[in-house]
Amino acid sequence: MQTTRDLTAIGETVHTYFEGMHLGDTARLRQAFHPQAFLFGYFNDAFCHDSLDAWMREVESTPKPAENGEPFDMRIVATDVTGRVATVKVAALYLGLRFTDYLTLAQFGERWQIVNKAYHHD
């Protein structure tokens, strides 16, 4: 059963993810993701799949959107919670591209972390 407390904690995790993406801050992103998380999706029509560590290296080598003047334009579109798992659909501007991310989160104690990210951009 979802509670207001769960929804707040999930929102905080996703906001940490948003901040990490916009700032290019891998320490902040690691707070949002479970260490064993995986990322899958399509970037420029190529299927990509990465471990969290591999993706962190990509983020470190990518220009930081906030430093390049890109506006912060990331929002939660939908949230669905069942027990100790949740999905969050987000819309995000990142590096000039409009992404749709599907984040799967799991609850560990009181903490919610992203365990999977699937993404696509227009």
Task: Extract low-pLDDT stretches.
Answer: none
Give the radius of gyration. Answer: 14 Å
Average residue-wise pLDDT: 96
How many beta-strand runs? 6
Instruction: Describe the largest sheet.
Output: 6 strands, mixed
Structural class: alpha+beta
- Strand arrangement within the widest β-sheet reads 2-1-6-5-4-3
The general outline is globular
CATH architecture: Roll
SSE topology string: HHEEHEEEE
Can you tell me the CATH topology?
Nuclear Transport Factor 2, Chain: A
Number of helices: 3
Strand content: over 45%
Describe this structure in words.
It contains three helices and six strands, in the order H-H-E-E-H-E-E-E-E. It is α+β, with helices and mostly antiparallel strands. The protein has a single domain, classed as Nuclear Transport Factor 2, Chain: A, CATH 3.10.450.50. It is globular and about 40 Å long.
List the helices and strands and how they pair.
Blueprint: H1 4-23, H2 26-32, E1 33-43, E2 46-51, H3 52-60, E3 74-82, E4 85-94, E5 97-108, E6 111-121
Parallel strand pairs: 1-6
Antiparallel strand pairs: 1-2, 3-4, 4-5, 5-6
Protein name: Nuclear transport factor 2 family protein
InterPro entries: FrzH/put_lumazine-bd, NTF2-like_dom_sf
